[in-house]
């Protein structure tokens, strides 16, 4: 993708902003505390993992890109506790739902166990292992 096509895509998305109900309510001065809580709970997981993501990105850069590496590591350090701000704002504004740091822990999910040697030709045609349910401990 060229920079021109990227810029065109960004301009198109910005133009669509007026069609997004939340942004329309913000523009009209009708945003609610529920809207704010929705934004915070939506952002939580990205914010809580961003510091690790920045550090991981930095670790993958060649030393030729030391300035970008330094920026990412600095930004990772700067962002490492910002997720706590979200939880604090939720508590301070009377949020009554499941806190986002607990939301995933409360879910159960199904996992299929697969051994590495199942990809071996000698094991083809054999039944796959049965899935099993993993319930997270109560929090």
The gyration radius over C-alpha positions equals 22 Å
Series of secondary-structure elements, N-terminal to C-terminal:
HHHHHHEE
Strand element count:
2
What's the number of structural domains? 2
Mean pLDDT, nearest integer? 80
Strand order of the largest sheet: 1-2
Number of helical elements: 6
In terms of per-residue confidence, which ranges show pLDDT below 50 for 5 or more consecutive residues? 105-118, 131-139
Regarding quaternary structure, how should these chains be classified? single chain
Q: What shape does the CA trace take?
A: extended
Largest sheet: 2 strands, antiparallel
Helix residue percentage: 55-70%
Give the percentage of residues in beta strands: 5-15%
User: First CA to last CA: what distance?
Assistant: 45 Å
Structure description:
The protein has two domains: 1-31; 32-135, no CATH class. Helix content is 56%, strand content 6%. It has six helices and two strands; from the N terminus they run ααααααββ. Helix 3 (33-59) packs antiparallel against helix 4 (66-79) and helix 3 (33-59) packs antiparallel against helix 5. It is extended, with a radius of gyration of 22 Å.
